[in-house]
Description:
- The chain is an alpha/beta fold.
- The chain has helices at 23-30, 83-95, 114-127, 136-144, 157-171, 183-197, 204-213, 247-252, 296-303, 307-317, 336-346, 389-393, 421-434, and strands spanning 10-15, 36-39, 42-43, 48-52, 55-59, 72-75, 79-81, 102-106, 110-111, 201-202, 218-221, 259-267, 271-272, 330-331, 334-335, 350-354, 365-373, 376-378, 396-402, 440-442, 450-452.
- The strands form six sheets. Strands 10-8-6-2-11-1-12-16 form an eight-stranded parallel beta sheet, sandwiched between helices. Strands 15, 17, 18 and 19 form a four-stranded mixed beta sheet that branches.
- Strand 20 and strand 21 form a beta hairpin.
- Helix 3 packs across helix 4 (136-144), helix 5 (157-171) crosses helix 6 and helix 9 crosses helix 10 (307-317).
- It is globular and about 65 Å long.
- The structure holds inosinic acid (IMP).
- Inosinic acid binds next to helix 4.
Amino acid sequence: MQISLVKMPGIVVVGAQWGDEGKGKVVDAIAPQVSVVVRYQGGANAGHTVYSGCEAYALHQIPSGVMHAGKKLVLGDGMALNIDKLIAEIYGLKEKGLFKGCLYISDRAHVALMHYFSLEAGREAILHVGTTQQAIGPTYEFAANRAGIRIGDLSDELNLRDKIRRNIDLSRPLLPVGFILNPDEMAEDLLEKFEKIRPYVADTSFLLSRWLAAGEDILFEGSQGTLLSINQGTYPHCTSSHTVSGGVTVGAGVPPQAIKRVIGVIKAYPTRVGEGEFPTELKFPAARKGEEAITDADIAAIKKGGEAAIGKYIRVFGDEYGATTGRPRRPGWTDIVAERFAVRVNGMTEAVPTRLDILDGIDPVKACVAYDFDGRHIDEIKEPFPSSESVLARCRPVYVEFPGWPKDSSFGVTDYGKLHGNARRFLEFREENLGIPFRMISTGPKSYQTIFR
Ligand code: IMP
């Protein structure tokens, strides 16, 4: 069958920062307009929060469209899947009556094996990336060294046993002395688990080509963010997959022409989890959820523009703690240099700003428009966003200040004209500087808390 290049209605949603931009909400809001939602990279390291009525659900591997009736949901070739967590997620959602779509799991996706978790712990002790400890790195390492186990291997018992033996031969020297690896037990375990997902396994690249040719609207849901991408991100403090829009082609097995729109999600303030450089970071001590609270002294400090107190306020009020790990996220001021870079490498056609409401009441609000690097002006217009973290570490942000807007004035607003003028000016400055339209603006976690312009 010939694929018609005329009908290529793919929309990609990517994170424009270091992840946790609110992609799940954006995907959830767009999902009713499409018939297919595809994950193309990452695995259980992702955590997308979506709502069913008033209840929040953190999805890890299942695409965010799962709660919309009749959607086709695809876990693509480029994923690093945790089968135990996948089974728990599928059956957990089914029990609650929230699994309303049709799931397809690529037979080419790789499996995170149990001993990879130990491999990752060993690597973390040396590399200090601050990973989510979901064995994402080792799963992609084994995919690249050709000794990985793919979902499709689990349906072929004889070859599976051979493949597991080879995988173990390669893994053993890397594991702690005495680590027990029993190939037969491992095979039995994987074969048993496979039976729980067998009905969903398919050649998803082939199915996607059919659906694309039939003109079905397809949404590709990115995980993590541009600055965590393995090639373009802040290496080595990044994830191991291609989180950028180009990752769609290799991760879903579709041609580049399949992509028509690239929507970047940009939070009103970026956050980072784990280690790595972050030029606009609002620095203050790390604390886990429930271990910190906003005090009167913090409020007084925020009024005087105290950056540590503003950072703490954003984290506590914005509930900026990892959906997967519960780790505290590090907040910072808007970074237009990094966002311009994300617009360029993803070919973004539009962006969706999120969480404007969390900045309600902060005055002034700052946006970084360039970095000063030893007297050089890096703005991602004449000089590109640095490829090296050691350069990034020496970049000093150049800020523009904006008068703030009143507390609670943006939350839940659905009409652009009803946003406070200062909030609109902040948004319009970002829009002009990124050179792409903001057609949708998120003002709260629920899908209806959205402005469409
Ligand atoms: P990994 O993806 O678990 O290997 O972690 C690599 C880096 O990416 C670490 O800094 C993680 O904190 C970060 N990371 C991975 N997934 C996410 C995510 O969904 N949101 C934010 N950061 C993430």
